[in-house]
Design a protein that fits this description.
By secondary structure, the chain is α/β, with parallel strands linked by helices. The protein has one domain (9-55, 91-204): Rossmann fold. 21% of the residues lie in helices and 22% in strands. The chain contains four helices and eight strands, in the order βαββββαβαβαβ. The protein has helices at 34-43, 136-143, 155-168, 188-198, and strands at 9-14, 48-53, 74-77, 80-83, 109-113, 147-153, 172-181, 202-204. The protein has a six-stranded parallel β-sheet. A two-stranded antiparallel ribbon has the order 3-4. It is globular and about 50 Å long. The N and C termini lie close together (6 Å). The structure holds pyrazine-2-carboxylic acid and zinc ion. Pyrazine-2-carboxylic acid binds at residues 15, 20, 53, 85, 122, 153-154, 157-158.
């Protein structure tokens, strides 16, 4: 399938940061393989937004902030279930910077998320309480975008939540799987595919 890309399309590049790539603090298997694919795709878009996971060092999503807990355990936060992660994407650290191979000079906005200590933000649109907005929906509407094409890391967390929220905000949404990689905990990649499909997100193998 080919995507006809126009003025009302935005490419949303989610969290292509060192910590999500091999060698990083929360590595996604083969995560760096998306970099050349994303670069090539970005050349076809006039408009690109990048997201950057951007946590304070004592962020509540870090297992290290919960004595006795280990990474990948789940806790109940005031806003619901929260998986605990290894410390990652700490503000102003090398792990939080974009992968050095990412080459998208024409990106128009870098949206940072997860910067509030008490709450995680997988989605580029809402924090994990599903109600605190990041401002991205308003930005995209004001700019006149109708369709959001999503790529990046990780397919089953930040890409998934961003895609679901983009739909909920009324945008047409496409996820290009070839330009994503997942963490895949307990079948979370398959669950992501089913859930996105059922919500009307178009999943493409390759563009
Ligand atoms: C992500 C877990 C924690 C992601 C971010 O980018 O998918 N996952 N923080
Ligand atoms: Zn994070």
């Amino acid at each position: 399938m080919t995507l006809a890309i126009g003025e009302s399309d935005i490419l949303l590049v989610v969290d292509v940061q060192n910590d999500f790539c091999p060698g990083g603090a929360l590595p996604v298997a083969d995560g760096d393989a998306v970099v050349p694919v994303v670069n090539r795709l970005a050349e076809k878009f006039r408009h690109v937004v990048l997201t950057q996971d951007w946590h304070p060092a004592d962020h509540a999503s870090f297992a290290s902030a919960h004595p006795g807990k280990s990474p990948f355990e789940q806790v109940t936060a005031p806003y619901g279930p929260q998986i605990l992660w290894p410390d990652h994407c700490v503000q102003e650290t090398p792990g939080a910077t974009f992968h050095p191979g990412l080459a998208i000079p024409h990106a128009e906005l870098v949206l940072r998320k997860g910067f509030r200590r008490e709450i995680d933000s997988y989605s580029a649109f809402f924090e994990n309480d599903h109600e605190t907005p990041t401002g991205l929906a308003g930005y995209l509407r004001e700019r006149g975008f109708a369709r959001v094409v999503i790529v990046g890391l990780a397919l089953d967390f930040c890409v998934r939540f961003s895609a679901e929220d983009a739909r909920a905000c009324g945008f047409d949404v496409v996820v290009i799987e070839e330009a994503c990689r997942g963490i895949d905990m307990d079948g979370s990649v398959d669950a992501t595919r089913r859930e996105l499909f059922s919500r009307g997100v178009v999943l493409l193998d390759a563009a």
